[in-house]
Design a protein that fits this description.
214 residues, alpha/beta, Rossmann fold, 7-stranded mixed beta sheet, 8 helices, 7 strands
Length: 214
Amino acid sequence: MVINELSAWHIFVKRYQLTCEQEDLFKRYFQAMQSWEEFGNITAISDEKSFVELHFDDSLVLTKFIDMTTITSIADIGSGGGFPGIPLKIMFPHLSVYLIEVKRKKIAFLERLVSELGLENVTVVPLDWRTFLRKTNFSIDLFCARASLPVTEFVRMFKPSSPYKHARLVYWAAQDWQAPRHVTCYMKHDWRYCIGERVRRLVLFQHSEQVSGD
């Protein structure tokens, strides 16, 4: 793939100071999304510029607000095409990553993608969110939720019986998103950022005891 100096790829690579190996992995990722016909419609975004901006860049924007070198493990809730879990893994190879996905076609896609890219310590977890909370007890520092379930579902992780109640959650939200009243006690930060001409937000949640104790 030839990269024009002013292309979305060039801007993306420079913005995150990607290595040649990381750049190659992102290109292979994009090509897989484009060429694996049996997994059609994993994402509705197909043109290169929009894909790089709205999937890759929008996944890595988290790194502008959280020091990912201090995080050892993340979980991507409703991973779908692997966003943001796999882009974060490519940029930070030290991460252990759990991709939570319940739809069979997307599970198969994720498993093949992880294998094709040669990513280690990436686990595809074929469970819905509530079952995940009931039946697993992984060591996870940070949960990521991008375009999957309502935030009212996510904050179930902070219940006293949850093994993940002391982890943190980052929620990708629209500019005009309004937090339901009963979840505001878990809100720690609300960051605004731009992708292209779009204004979006990253909202960090954690257990209310941790918030009040900061």
